[in-house]
Amino acid sequence: MAAASSYAMQSSILACPVTNISNRCRVNQFGIPSLRRKASLVVRSMAEEEQAPNPVTPPAPSQKVSSKLIDILAFSGAAPERINGRLAMIGFVVALAMEVTKGEGVFVQISNGGITWFLGTSVILSLASLVPLLRGVSVESKSKAFMSSDAELWNGRFAMLGLVALAFTEYIKGSTSTLV
């Protein structure tokens, strides 16, 4: 008997998308189930026994950025990949621009005085990158949503790969220009 009534209840609930207490599905003149209900649904919950509040752990203090030159220039320090990436980004854009405008490949650019420009740019950019780090300013503290420090690292990595690809393509082709 209980199984039959349970089955009847389930079938009436599943048959009618909008259910009400009377277990009958009311349909309006267009055959759409009525959204009107006779009884309101009340949900009550009982609180469990009071629990001891979880102690709030203060956030871990951020590590202070070391301003020692040895720490900054260490293999895992803040400067090496960042400076190399910045130099690669400048070098990639300049190499492409010179190749498009003058038709000279990377190796020709280097042999025609590119070494002095590279060394000068490297010294200036390295010093400009080291000054804030030596003062204790972290790169992440100056990072914005769009111009983030992670985006700078990835752009530098891709620029490094791009420079290698330009040189490798020129070497394989055996020509002085890869774009012209």
From TrEMBL:
Q: Which GO terms describe its cellular component?
A: membrane
Spell out where the chain crosses the membrane: 87-108, 114-134
Q: How does it sit in the membrane?
A: Multi-pass membrane protein
The record's keywords, sorted A to Z, are: Membrane, Transmembrane, Transmembrane helix
- The answer to whether keyword Transmembrane helix applies is yes
User: Any idea where this protein resides?
Assistant: Membrane
The coiled-coil segments of this chain are: none
Give the principal location in a single coarse category.
membrane
Q: Which PANTHER family match?
A: UPF0041 BRAIN PROTEIN 44-RELATED
Protein name, please? Early light-induced protein
The organism encoding this protein is Arachis hypogaea
